[in-house]
Amino acid sequence: MEAAAAAAAAAAAAGGGCGSGQPPLLLSEGEQQCYSELFARCAGAAGGGPGSGPPEAARVAPGTATAAAGPVADLFRASQLPSETLHQITELCGAKRVGYFGATQFYIALKLIAAAQSGLPVRIESIKCELPLPRFMMSKNDGEIRFGNPAELHGTKVQIPYLTTEKNSFKRMDDEDKQQETQSPTMSPLASPPSSPPHYQRVPLSHGYSKLRSSAEQMHPAPYEARQPLVQPEGSSSGGPGTKPLRHQASLIRSFSVERELQDNSSYPDEPWRITEEQREYYVNQFRSLQPDPSSFISGSVAKNFFTKSKLSIPELSYIWELSDADCDGALTLPEFCAAFHLIVARKNGYPLPEGLPPTLQPEYLQAAFPKPKWDCQLFDSYSESLPANQQPRDLNRMEKTSVKDMADLPVLTQDVTSDDKQALKSTINEALSKDVSEDPATSKDSNSLKARPRSRSYSSTSIEEAMKRGEDPPTPPPRPQKTHSRASSLDLNKVFQPSVPATKSGLLPPPPALPPRPCPSQSEQVSEAELLPQLSRAPSQAAESSPAKKDVPYSQPPSKPIRRKFRPENQATENQEPSTAASGPASAATMKPHPTVQKQSSKQKKAIQTAIRKNKEANAVLARLNSELQQQLKEVHQERIALENQLEQLRPVTVL
Amino acid sequence: MAVCIAVIAKENYPLYIRSSPTENELKFHYMVHTSLDVVDEKISAMGKALVDQRELYLGLLYPTEDYKVYGYVTNSKVKFVMVVDSSNTALRDNEIRSMFRKLHNSYTDVMCNPFYNPGDRIQSSRAFDNMVTSMMIQVC
Questions:
Q1: What does the pLDDT look like over A485-503, one tens digit per residue?
Q2: pLDDT classification of A69: cutoffs 50, 70, 90
Q3: Residues of B in contact with A357 (CB under 8 A)
Q4: What PANTHER family does UniProt report for this protein, alphabetically (chain B) (predicted)?
């Protein structure tokens, strides 16, 4: 085959060194394979071209093929290096000198491109060291041809570096077999022994290049050596959620790195825009941390603060927002949020942003592919509250089961990914399926009902604020407090209504004498309360005239009604201070018994209103005190002013002269 | 098809200006700048009482020998100015109105992006750029 011949020729040429004084070129297995493929392509393309190949081949020594300038130039341009660098490379590799791209020149050029992409200077010496494979951004067809991977390419530009770096990492592992496995690169490295993760870490450390960052993303980022043992193919599902609560505390940057780990474990190697289960869970949890209700949305400013923590540049974030906010309403719903988060994660891992929102990130797709976010979040609640390890893999399996089902329906991934691990995953899911299915509706219903119950309970309020609101809501007070309360305290009722009977009977007289014994810390309080209470006394007396139990007050303003009700216990309190009414207390208790449940219902309300009134009175007192102080200050200022005016007048006759 | 499209902020500085590359861009910038006076005049002519009823589309601001300039003001006093080739007689008023409406919609979409600070130049919105490109004369 031409490829083999080219490879052989390359090896021979490299070994022997070309006559132009270049050093022997040492290529590793991976490099050889890659280069020979590229060379074959360029030469093949040249051969297909208008007779440029064969004549050149004839010119050159037999047994070597040459790559025509056209495809080679295209290839070099695809490496995305600046043109000066490419010129340098072509000069160095000797093509300019000999006038054509022989195998040697081509390989040297490729190696130089790899060096340049790694940031090394374009020199002959740089190709002596081991280098990663050169990276080329090619069109879809080229990519497919080159790597022979019938993978579905979503963002094709994204695809190639992914696979290239996979090859690179395989080379690093010195595992030549892996070169064949372009289909499931993420699965196989994970299946390898734990020594491999530290192996991979060397890669990002040695080359601080963005391309390698993307390879590091599939391997495990350096900071997470501690997590390496956790991230195993089977253990990932259980280890993931267990570490999730910890992650919540961690900074967002850490969380982004963690995302990479999660992405490795179950992401299909050729779908960078697909959200995996763990990712989805994580995104939803983050959403809920920002906005407790998973079915409503996050406002723009909240989302902005959150996403700026990712340390991406503002234009990029702005672009991501533009992509993900499909309805352009300035707010993110849950699927939009997941899409945005996923794009940010991808960008941080080195993937260039797509031109348009990928189909797998569309909100409709996200909503359809995954269970309802409410259900999800309730499940998450159930396991965030109680983190039993056994529950988590079960829940996860359930999620994975549903997602796998959905994904099976989708026409997307027909290919390939015949990874054994994926099969294993499916089989485990299927096993878990049978036992989980029965639990699914049960737990979901339970969690649903659990969620519903506290909410409903809160609406039938027994809280003071609710009662207060109910009491004060209607602008005109209702004649009878017809509200239902779950609790009734007849004792309170007795206390409340005790004094009403004697108070109303005695009419106007008792209330005014009740004022003085009231303990008042300051005069202003006394004054204010004295003002209040006479008003109130008039009110209840009139009410008493109309109906003892009802609160009809023709002229009373709304605040006076609760105050009025408050007045009774106040009255009762004041009267209790008086020894005279102390005796009447227990006596009138008996009279209260015949009163029906209507009063029971109102007692709770009264209590609430009483406390409210108390608070209001305190506030009143404070304000009154403040008022008096300010008035004092005003007086002083007045006096100063008067003094100054006097001085002015005294001085004036002097100046008039 | 416009030759030049500009978005001017309330304080009369440009937020976005794009001209068709055939001509000297400076000429268009100058035209847009001079048209701002006309816009202000038209706005103030309405009077304060009619602010709510003021129509957003201002119509032909002024014609020159080669070009016609159309204007549009939003309720937040952001102005859109469009320069059209005079020889393009097929362009009717309705079409200009629809172009301005599209511009306005894209502008509000840009506004909705929380990463966009009002008053910044509109540089990062690809959707806006694409929309404007679609309205400009397809040259080269």
A1: 545 444 555 555 555 444 4
A2: low
A3: none
A4: TRAFFICKING PROTEIN PARTICLE COMPLEX SUBUNIT 2 (PTHR12403)
Q: How far is A316 from chain B (nearest CA, A)?
A: 8
Residue A268 has pLDDT above 70, yes or no: no
- The answer to whether position B120 is within a domain reads yes
Q: Is A161 helix (H, G, I), strand (E, B) or coil?
A: helix
Residue type, B120: D
Residues in chain B with CB shorter than 8 Å from the CB of A303 are 114
User: Can you tell me the mean pLDDT for A537-557?
Assistant: 45
The answer to whether residue B15 is domain-embedded is yes
Q: How far apart are CA A22 and CA A93, in angstroms?
A: 8
Query: How many domains is chain B partitioned into structurally?
Result: 1
Tell if the pTM clears 0.90, that is, is over it.
Answer: no
Residue B140 within any structural domain of the chain: no
> Following CA atoms A112, A117, A123, A124 in sequence, which dihedral angle do they give, to the nearest 10 degrees?
-30
Q: What ipTM does the predicted assembly reach?
A: 0.84
Residue A329 near residue A363 (C-beta atoms within 8 A): no
Q: What is the CATH number of the domain that holds B67?
A: 3.30.450.70
Domain that holds residue B7: 2-135
Cβ-defined contact of A322 to B114 (cutoff 8 Å) = no
Residue B124: inside a domain? yes
For residue A73, the distance in angstroms to the closest alpha carbon of chain B comes to: 26
What is the per-residue pLDDT across A550-575, written as a single tens digit (0 to 9) for each?
Answer: 444 444 444 444 444 444 444 444 44
List the Cα angle B57/B61/B63 in 5-degree steps: 140
**Set of chain B residues whose Cβ sits within 8 Å of the Cβ of A300:** 112-114
